[in-house]
Amino acid sequence: MDKSYLYFYQKICSSQLPASAVNVYKALLQYANRTTWCCFPSVNTIAHDTKLSTRTVRRQLIILENAGYILRIPRQRENNGHTSNMYFLN
User: Fold this and answer.
1) Using the 8-state DSSP alphabet, how is residue 84 labeled?
2) Which of these, 39, 44, 73, 75, is most buried using a 10 Å CB contact count?
3) Which domains does the chain have, with CATH numbers?
4) Phi-psi region of 68 (alpha: psi -120 to 50; beta: other; left: phi over 0)
5) Hey, how many other C-beta atoms are within 10 angstroms of the C-beta on 60?
């Protein structure tokens, strides 16, 4: 583990967020690029990894975004179809 990973891990573990939000953040942390700290797993992938429902994952992503822990950027395919969001860890 490198220092930056520990920074994000300790930051979320010491937060006052609900346990489900912490689990979603940890799932994002697993997929994050270690230099840019961005990732783009689907809601279904996060739900599978955390054993939470997709509805709960979506609610926890909103909580994390409102609390300033992540920045969510919607992505679209060339045919204007939707694909997974891009998440930046703050």
Assistant:
1) P
2) 39
3) 18-89 (1.10.10.10)
4) left
5) 23
**Integer CA distances (angstroms), 83 to 10, 22, 30, 32, in order:** 30, 24, 20, 17
Which secondary structure element, helix H or strand E, spans residue 60, and what is its range? helix 54-66
Q: Which two tokens stand for residue 51?
A: 């054993």
Report pLDDT for 82. Answer: 84
Cα gap 77→5, rounded to integer Å: 30
Quick: pLDDT tens for 1-47. 456 889 999 999 999 999 999 999 999 999 999 999 999 999 999 99
> Are 82 and 76 in contact, with CB atoms under 8 Å apart?
yes
